[in-house]
Amino acid sequence: MSSVAPGWYKDPAEPTTQRYWDGEGWVGAPLPAGATPPPGPPPAEPAPAPPAAAPLPGVPQPGASQPAAPLPGAPLPGAPQPGGSWAPGPPPQAGHPPYPPYGPPAGPPAGFPPGPGAPPPGWPHPYGHLPPPPPRPHGLALAPLGARLAARLIDIGMVLLLNVVVNGWFVWQYAQEVSPVFAEAWRRARAGEQSMDGLPTASERATSLQMVIVLIAAALWFAYEVPSTANTGQTLGKRIMRLRVARLEADGPLGFGRAFRRWNTMGLPTLLWVCCVGFVLQIVDSAYVLFDRPLHQALHDKSAQTVVVQLPRDATPSHRPGAEPEDRSDTPGGSA
Hints:
alpha+beta, 10% strand, transmembrane helix, membrane, RDD family protein, Pra-immunoreactive
């Protein structure tokens, strides 16, 4: 215990102030050195007040006005209303915590197709990701594969009919040239002879007739298909099946150059029919539509950058490539 009596003394650490010494240490707040100190020790300093606790959300606070309780059966503010619509509730009163965020998130997801029966905007589709819609070149549906096959069979029949008329005499002459060869081969087959020695061969005239027949067949096919496709995009078969060949980049007439490029991929192999290679190439070209996606193009469509589309049932002249809009001045109410 210190020998210094309790009392007010100058603070050795700060001579301009005085503090109270209680015999063991300095207590209380300091006073200026020239001030008259109280007769005893300084009054005790009040304890600091504890910090106020933050109000909990949803807990009523004393003295704050409270919202009226909802009536039984009444919908909660901001809750979904019957019929699938979302009705916003009234704003919260002063001192009341904000309402919970009822309702769907703001903004629909990217690529969600709105429409009747769809979930509310911003909600995921119940069946997951939807496949992309089929392409519609120039607003028209792609031609069905069955309709394209039927149109091609009609065109083949028409080309065969033209060959009967134009190429029939050459075919008859060729048959006369090769008939001895087939007759002798048939006789030996019926007699059970397997030797080919002494079997007659076709004459040079038969070989020439074969080339002429193939050239005429290709020319007839060219004359039947290329001009009509260049002008309207339709052969007779496509017109009957309501199909049309269209350009990919713009809706307009194909033109002779593009129509020729489209035809030569499937028509020129006709010249190779004599060695059976041309027919195989044409089968591969036509069957490519079964595997091509998404436009179902054959190889001749890809070479010419074309696509085959389906015309609607109520097709008007405006559906033809390069057609002018219909003049409706004679409709009721139009100008005379």
